[in-house]
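Can you give me the bound-state structure? Components:
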Amino acid sequence: MARIKTEKNGSRKDVIVSKAATLFREKGYKAASMRDLAEAVGVEAASLYNHIKSKSELLHELVFNVANRFVLKMDEIESEPISSLQKMEKLLRFHISEMIHNYEEVYVSDREWKHLSDPYLSNYQNQRRVYRKRIAAIIEEGIRNKEIKAIDAPTVVLIFLHAVSGIESWHRSTKKISAEELEQNMVAILIDGLKANH
Amino acid sequence: MARIKTEKNGSRKDVIVSKAATLFREKGYKAASMRDLAEAVGVEAASLYNHIKSKSELLHELVFNVANRFVLKMDEIESEPISSLQKMEKLLRFHISEMIHNYEEVYVSDREWKHLSDPYLSNYQNQRRVYRKRIAAIIEEGIRNKEIKAIDAPTVVLIFLHAVSGIESWHRSTKKISAEELEQNMVAILIDGLKANH
DNA sequence: GGGAAAAGAACTAACGTTTATTCGTGCTAA
DNA sequence: TTAGCACGAATAAACGTTAGTTCTTTTCCC
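Here's the bound-state model for the whole set.
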């Protein structure tokens, strides 16, 4: 009867959620079974239910953890007295950093949120819509100030968000450049692509 | 006993594969059941097996149809006597066009290939790796010719491919700009971001 | 052209698995 | 000693798929 080993200051539930993130990333939410998860945790499937309510709880825990971090950062950036282009760069760097250091959770949130069930699903979709509008607003401000070239803001948002999620491939690749180089390269391409031609 | 209605010159299997693409996009491969698919087609689940061998056949049919189209276009572009930057622009426009006009299939191929089973899985992963290397080679040539700014080519590839897959959001959005505008905007940002500063 | 034979495509019923989850019991750390 | 936690066994529902049968369309010979 081997107990789940916790990190110090971490609950057993935390261990399960964390292993779930890895598993959901590898196989997808639907394809990852509770028996798979149990094996990864080192315990029988039934035992998981001493710590969590359901499989779906694991998903929405993951998703909203990530979503909250992003909203919090957005609050911070919006209130800073810097140019729109600088805001975009800060935001981009944050997204990149999250994707590098909290890979599993962020990736799962991005790809598996469809499997949330209401009310979490509509709640999440709402948050997402609002978040994108906030990015678009920064871009539109930059266009008005002629810092950013005049292009459709929602299109920029879409390129931005998805380009960052490409870091997934970087994680998997064998001969990686360093995280710092990766960040620098992405910023170079995307922020330069935004700049108005003077 | 309602038969599956075919387009002219199309088999019943084609109808099933096409509906499967839509369903796999909406719910994901694993979450989409054969009973769901049967309902979409207008028939009982068992009847599907008069036309297809298995659920997984549907997936690899979709995936390799798409993959082959991309490889073919790559062959064509590689052999053209144009600059690297022009090649990248052509490739980008092709990716965008595919994503706009063959949305369901392309999207499914991109997101659900993990659920392929061997030998299709390793085959696909191979093709994918080669394809990315071919893009990287174009970029590296452009860097040597000083058309493209000196950045890590694999990073560009990653941004490139994922940015395009962002068109998914465009499809879903309600107040869309036109397909032409979308294409123009994406080219503006990405190709401009590549250009060497002279 | 009309009618029998063959082929195609649908049905219902059931199969064996796998799924997430619950229950009651007993071990073990605090 | 008690509360927490892991266990094996069991559940119902859903899954992909097969079997056997029936209906419908096409093919082909007279």
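A couple of observations. Chain B has ten helices and no strands. The radius of gyration of chain B is 19 Å.
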